[in-house]
Amino acid sequence: MERGQVTREAWLDRCYKSLVTSNPSCLQLLEEVSAALARHVTEPQESELRQQAVFLLLGPEYTAKHFPYHRYNVRTLEPPLNPQRKESYLKEARLFLDECFSRALEELSYPRDASRYTGDTPLGKFVGEVRAAYRECVNQRAAVTAFEQEDEKRRQLRERKKKSPEEEEEEEEESVHVTVNLSEAASEAIVSLVGTDAGARERLRKRLKEKYVALPPSLRLSLWWEVLGEREEGVRGEGEVRERLLSTLEREMKRQRLRRAIESKAWRAIDEAVIEAYDTTPLLAPLESDGHLLQTARALNIMTVLSGKFSSSFVFSLVPLQLLLRRQQEQEDEAVVMRVASWGYLLCRHCLLEPQEVFGVAEEVVRVVGMEDPAYLSHLRSCLSAHTQNFNVQVFPPELLTRNTEASLRFHAQLTGRGARSLPPVPKGVFSEPSLFVRKWIAQVFVGVVEMQAALWVWDQLFLDKWRRGTVKFVALSLLAIIRPWVMRASAYDIMKVLLEEPGRAYLGELRRAFAHLAGGGRLQDTPAGSYVGGEGVGGVPSIQQQGK
């Protein structure tokens, strides 16, 4: 921030200064609270040093006005006084003044949290002005942002390959419309206001968690990084984390004898996994460009060099990070790839479930279904056991076919190395258990399972709950509850298609309501009925839109 700037956002700083600079309402409130505080800061301190610590925090002007008969001599707190003793005195003084401030607010009948306060008092008048000014500033910021985005789109259109004047004019008319996003402007303000105040950020996180909301981009960037960054011990801020990882990367490249970090020893497997993931996942099709796939492969190679391990499910785990960081990409391509890789490495290291944990959560999900809805689980197992149609084995994570990871990898290689992707007759029983599909959902962290906006919402809930296993469980149960009508109508012929495709048709609103119901202690069978996006449905079952026709 620039010198004299109070918040990180310049536009919000201007809003703040308009409220506190020569504002009669603000001055009246400060005078009232200051006088009340002075009436409670009357208790003499035990020593001169403690007294001066209190005066240092109050400031010379306040001390001279309200305590004119006391000497303001804060130099006694400077060397040769031990700095640790000074900090100790200041800590005691802060606690004392905080207690006095609470008593002063109680005397005035004012709450400590004035965000919802109304009343015909100096505080009520000032809070009203704050709300009005903030609303106006957010509206102005949204309008400015929309103009900037429109101008940037026009610039990009001009830089494209030459077109005929008619084509360029037609494309420009279709592309430059921008929607004013008030929630994004508001989230910028929230991020700036809470700053590094850990208490304020924690209260914000809890409030958002209770509402099951989808986070605007600025807030999403801030809160996601907070969870990733706080789990990397010994560093503060993304800059320090990046420096540590760059140092580790350089050391690992030397140890592994690599020329480039984006060419790990697993580069061939990574390339194949990226192509396979996007080829077999329809919900990722809108992202399938050469630039996006190249960024994915390079970031995964860096992650592999750093961690020494790679899983095909990491391809899916990178997608939300790429979408989130894409709007920040004013850096060079290499810096962007490194940032995506850094976030991905921290995510895999500190948040994603290990294979055995995935098995545990999936089995718990199936156990809940069996206890609360045995007919549902029985039908699932019956259809899967009788399924005889061929399907693509590659859609399942190689390390999650069986509990023994190494055996699972060998089994997957055996199935896919015969020149055909259909199941051999002997090991078909592995694919007749519903928990396999739940494991796939969890391993992919629901990316490519539900539509992208729903996946980002799921990730918001995971980060707000700091990636606790219970959140993963409730999301999986929500999907099973939502697709239940389609599963119960399915047969052995189309059960695989229902399980693989129907979750991607669920509305975000229905997923949110189902999750809130289950996370709040509701029974599986009482979950609100699901709705579906799209046209033809799966397994001969018409979509909800078709049923309404």
Description:
- The protein is an all-alpha fold.
- Among the domains are: 120 residues, no CATH class; 193 residues, no CATH class.
- It has 25 helices and no strands.
- Helix 21 packs across helix 24.
- The chain starts with 9 loop residues before the first helix and ends with a helix.
Summarize the structure.
This protein has 549 residues and is mostly helical.
User: Helix segment count?
Assistant: 25
Helix content: 55-70%
Q: Determine the structural class based on helices, strands and strand pairing.
A: mainly alpha
Main sheet record: none
State the separation between the terminal residues, measured CA to CA: 57 Å
Number of strands: 0
Question: Which spans have pLDDT < 50 for at least 5 consecutive residues?
Answer: 167-182, 418-426, 531-549
**What percent strand?**
under 5%
Large-scale geometry: elongated
Radius of gyration: 29 Å
Q: Helix-strand pattern, N to C? A: HHHHHHHHHHHHHHHHHHHHHHHHH
Mean pLDDT: 83
